Amino acid sequence: MPPYRLFRNFAYGAAGLTPCPMLREGQVFYADYAKPDGFCDEAWKAIYQYVFALAHGATKEPFYYGDWISKPGIAICSCNDGLRPVIFKLEATDEESQIGYIPVQD
Known about the structure:
106 residues, alpha+beta, 21% helix
């Protein structure tokens, strides 16, 4: 069943349950180690490890030995909202990441 129909047909959904109010189709975010501004906290918890891997060199071979995603530099993930999941296409870029803070040096 397509995800957009799942929340409407699932018997445990609250009355008036709508698609995810946090994100919209077609939004683009750039990230490497930190959650982008405006990105859902719960969705970030579900996908950050893939974002980090792609941002730090996991681009030469497909994830999980090619039996999950066939194209290097790509991951397809979803948030963990079981009634109205958002599906993400993660892509590595050639952009250099920059730390947005000064690291503490001991």
